[in-house]
Structures are given as structure tokens and as C-alpha cells.
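User: ok so my PI wants both of these folded by tonight, can you help

Assistant: No problem, let's get them done. Here's the first:
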Amino acid sequence: MIQLSTNLFGGYKIRVQVVKQRRNVPRTPFFPKLEDILNTRSGSKISRFFRHFFEKGNLKSLVGKNLAAAAIVASITTPGLGYIPHVQNATFAEVGVLSVDQPLTTDVHLQYPVDLVTVNQGYFSYHPGIDLKGKVGDQIRPVMDGKVIVIENSRLGYGKSVVIDHLNGYGSRYAHLSKILAIEGQDVNTRTVIGEVGNTGRATGPHLHLEIYHNGAKINPLTFLPPRSN
């Protein structure tokens, strides 16, 4: 038989006796199960022990009683265990998490510039707009009322493109058009056909590249466009 003992803070001591197990003798765990700890009646010895342990260690205020119990038991009963086991109905420390159940809304209301909406590529720092799938010749309409301020015809970059100035510092660009049906200075609304989908400029296939500006800065069009139904 081997005897081991160690002192704990608060005047507690743990003494362990290691003996050779006899056959047909039921095994009694050295440490109580986690469920027993969590369900222990108030006032019992084990309850008083763990209450004192948590208070002395200030663990209760940091991570919650049950989470601390799970960590302690796991570290003692399973050497090398590097995670905290799942405890059903356990109470954990509250964490500040922002939950948004509603889509972002603004005072700006836009429409999609094409009838059939499929986003081929989203908005990224290296792609400051969205690509909408389309066929050559599909009609394009402004996302908002405004005035055409730039018409471009290039074999590179945006290819054939239209830039429209809207109210309150907003603007929009429609790029890679196969045909431009608007002119600079023209007042347009959401029913005006300003061009047709194409693949001019730096494009890998027919699509509409849409950019939205606010006070000169490019912003994510999907922030303002309505949710897609498809």
C-alpha cells in the first residue's frame, strides 16, 4: 500500500491510499462524478468543500460555478485533458454578444439594376462592387433616380460604363456594358434603360459590375439593396 497526501488552501488536505485491487471488488472512483458534484445537496461535506474552493479561488465570479467545476474535475480525473466537457443545463459566465435578428436598414432604398438577380461575386477590398449574372443584351436600369455624369468607352478596366449621381452624396457605376443607351447630363429614374449587359473591358464573361459610392467612397451595394428572393 502506498499513501500520498497533499495540503490544500483553507486547511483542507487530500490523502490517497493506493492498494492492489482485488478481484470481483467493485471500483469506487477516487473523485466524485461531475453530475454528483453539480447535484450535491446544499450543506453536505462535498458541497461545503467546493463552495470554499470556489470562493477562495475567485473562480465563481470569473467563469461560473459549473464551468469551474467541470474544468477542475476534468483536470484531476483525466490527465492531459485539454478541453472542458459539455455539461447539460450548466450555467456559464455571461458573455457580451451582439445578436442582430433584423437586416440592416437605412433611409436609402435601391432596386436591383437587372430583372433576374444572381450575385456571381460579392464585395471585397480587392473587388469593391458586386457582379450580377446576365446575358448580353439584358436591360440595365439605375438603382435610384439621378443624373448621368460619366460615360466611358474603354477596351480595358470597366469597358463601357455609366456613372450616375444620386441625392445625398450617393452615386453608382454600371460596368462592362455591351451597349450604352444614356448620355451625359441625362436625368434618369428607376424605369430608364441606361444600357445592356455585356463583357467589355476586363471581364471574363457577360455580367454587370455594380459599384455604389457615398461621398466618393465605394461601399457594399448589398448593404442597401433589398434581400434577394432566389
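One down. Here's the second:
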Amino acid sequence: MSIQPLSRPLIAGTFMLLMTVGVSFYSSDAAAYDPEQGCSDLGFSLSIAPSVSTTNGKIEVAGVPLGTEIAKLVPGNISGMCDTGYSTNPSIGDIPPGLGFLVYKTHNCSAGRAFDADGNISMFCLAPLNTNAVLQFDGNNGPAAVQPVVSATNAILLNKKRPGETIIPMTSLADFSKFYSTWGNYDWNLKEESLRGPVTPPTLTLVYTPTCSAEVNDVAFGTLSAGEIKNNRVRPGRATVNVSCNDIVAKYSITFSSPKGVLGDKTAILSDNTTIGYQLSWPNGAVQENIKLDQPYERNAPSEAFSIPVDILPVPLPSAGAIKSGRADSVVTINLKFS
């Protein structure tokens, strides 16, 4: 018996599962905000409100530590209503947006701070959008009145001090020609808004004029003999000018003179004794460098408080003949100028 296997035709099939996927992309320039988002009758002005002392409207930064708030950027004359669109179309998000904001774009944004062109001042900036808020509004319940931001985002901090007067246009820190409504810190819902009139950015003026005080001790030589003075056997007396400033000064100049008069060659001041004068010198170890009178000496200030030592020595005046006995009182005038 022979058994023949049954043959079945083999069917080769190819199955394809077709799937349609719809994906929408917003370009960086496309408007993705809700149709109801926006502002109406919007207008405001900007001004600077100093937080520290001023001189003729200029902010004095001497004595102010770096990183201190020196002013605020303050909106005024505010009008208008803004809306995130949430109450009209809640599908834009599962979570209510909370506050809406009117923002502007900053320059030189780094680590959450925007700086002016020269790095003198800084303000808050929100990366990566490089924006800062100036007004806020309720974003959950339809159109709402705008008001100043309640946070410290518009605080202006001191970043650098420069001697003299520094004028800083706020346009070097941010672009105040365009303003945007937004919520939730998303780049895709920044909507440029129209204002009733242009906003004129203010200018900030810093003044750095440290104030200093100085005091100096008296020098008394007691009773000296004519021979000690004539033969240069008198030990110099030390006068120390102690200077204290409320901030670091870059340079100073010091000039010595006397209401009693000075010798013609500017090497000694005169005294009540017509035969005795006083020679001033810088103490430089074993070497004494004589000080020329009525001549300014320029120096760098090492710190906010420093001392200037001066040695004073009684000397016989030339062509005065024998030294006369009696008192030889005198006065040294010290003129300090800071820059």
C-alpha cells in the first residue's frame, strides 16, 4: 500500500497596516496664542524711581555695595484690559494660566540678569525668552485690568562703579519699542500688542563721588638748642594724615603749604622765628625724600581708609645768621583732592 501525502497550496500574502498620523508644527514666527488673547486700549509710561540717595536727580552710588538695588523701573499712567483667552477657550490648557503679563525683550541676558551695554546695571530677565514683565493681569477670568508687576523683576541693581557721572539710556538694556502679552512663560504665546502711544524709555544717571574726611596730629619738638638744630642733630617728628572715605577713590593729590609762608625755593615753611623753618619729607626708610611745597603730589588711593606719613624737621634758614632763641611755632596746610 502506498500512501500519497495530500498537498496544500501555499499562499504567500503581504499585509500592510496603513496608519495616518497628523502632526502640526508651529514655526517660531507663527502665532499660537488663543484667538481671545490680547489687550485693548493699552497705554502706560515708564519712569525711574531711585531706591538710594540722589543728587539733583542723579543716583549717588558712592558707599553703595555692588549688587544693591539702586532704582526701580516704574510704569505709570496705566490704562487698558488684557486677556489670556482661558475663560473663552479653556482647552488651551488643563491648568488655568494664573497671571498674564505684558513683557518686553531684554539685551545681554545672562544667568537671569540683563545688563546695559557697559555692564553698569542689571535687571531680571527670563531665559530663554530674554523677557521681563512690566505689567500683569488676571489670566483666568476673561478681560482684566492691567497693573504693575508686584514682584521685584523691575529692580535695577548696581553692577559696576565708574568715577564721575555715568548716563545710561535704558534702551541699552532692553527694547522698549515692542511689548507682548503672554502667560505661562511660553515662547509660542507671545503676542505683540499695540499701544495707544509710544513708550519713551527713561535714562538713568549714576554719580560716583565718594566723600572723605581727614585728620592729622600735631608735632611738638619741645626745647631744642641752637646747636642741635644747626648741626642736624634733631630727630624728625612724624605727622600722620589719616584719611577715611565712604568708598574707594581712584586717585588723590596732596599739597603742603603754610600761612606762615614758604622759603623761596619751596623747601621749607617759615615760622614765628625768622631764623628757623621746617622741612617736610616723605619717610622712605633710610632715605628722606624732601617735599616740595605748593606742589601737588598725585597718588593712587590704596583703600577706603589709608594713612599718609610725613616727617617734619626744624632747620636753620639760610642767610638768617645766628639762630635766635624763643618759640618757633608754625602751621602746615594740607590740601587733599580726590578724583
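The chain has one helix and 25 strands. Confidence is low (pLDDT under 50) at residues 1-31. Good luck tonight!
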